[in-house]
Amino acid sequence: MQIDILFGTESGNSEMVAEDIASAIAEAGDVTVRDMAGVDPADLVPSTFYLVVCSTYGDGQLPEGAVPFFRALGQQTPDLSGVRYAMYGLGDSDYVYSYSEGSEIIDRALTQRGAERVGEYGRHDAAEEEDPSVLGVAWAQGVLANAQILHA
Ligand SMILES: Cc1cc2nc3c(=O)[nH]c(=O)nc-3n(C[C@H](O)[C@H](O)[C@H](O)COP(=O)(O)O)c2cc1C
Asked: What are the beta bridge partners of residue 51?
C-alpha cells in the first residue's frame, strides 16, 4: 500500500522524524515523505494511508509549513471521505495551555472534511527525555500493524 508521510514543521524536527519513520518502514510498501507546505489537501486519496507529523509553534499555533495546507482545507473544502490518516504531534508540555495544539488543529480540519483518523494519537513532548524519532518510529509501526498495513 502507498504510505505518504506528511510533515508540518517550523524548525525541522518533524521533517527529521518523518524521514526516520520512512527509513524504518521502508519494507511496508511505497513510502514517500512530503512537506505539507507543498501538498494540496484536495489530492489526498483513499488508496493511500497518511502518517501526519506536525509540531506546534507560537502559542498553540501551526508551524509555518502547515499553514498553506490548513488554509486550503478551509478554502477548498475538499471531500476527504474514505481518506485514512494517523497523527503524531510534536510539542512541549511546558506550554501548559497549548501543548500539541498545532497537530490538533490539523487533525480537526481533516476530520471536518470527512477524513478518518486511525489508531493511537502519537505525541512527542520536548519536556521529556525521549527521542522524537524513536517514539515516532514505534508509534508508526504500531499504527500500521493495527491497521494491518505493516505486519508486526
Ligand atoms: C517559539 C516556540 C514556540 C513553541 N510553542 C509551542 C506551543 O505552543 N505548544 C507546544 O506544545 N509546543 C510548542 N513549542 C515546541 C515545539 O513544538 C517543539 O520544539 C517541536 O519539536 C518543534 O518541531 P518542529 O521543529 O518540527 O517545528 C514551541 C517551540 C518554540 C521554539
From this structure: 5, 86
The residue whose CA has the least distance to atom 18 of ligand 1 is: 91
Q: What is the DSSP letter of 136?
A: H
The pLDDT tens digits for 100-113 are 999 999 999 999 99
ipTM confidence: 0.99
- Note down the domain range covering 102: 2-146
Residue 39 lies in a domain: yes
In a domain, 151, yes or no: no
Q: At what angle do helices 101-112 and 67-76 cross, to 10 degrees?
A: 20
Q: pLDDT tens for residues 55-80?
A: 999 999 999 999 999 999 999 999 99
Q: Which residues line ligand 1 (CB under 6 A)?
A: 9-14, 55-60, 63, 90-92, 95, 98-101, 126
Give the CATH number of the domain where residue 109 resides. Answer: 3.40.50.360
Report the separation in Å between the CA atom of 93 and the middle of ligand 1, taken as the mean of its atom positions. Answer: 9
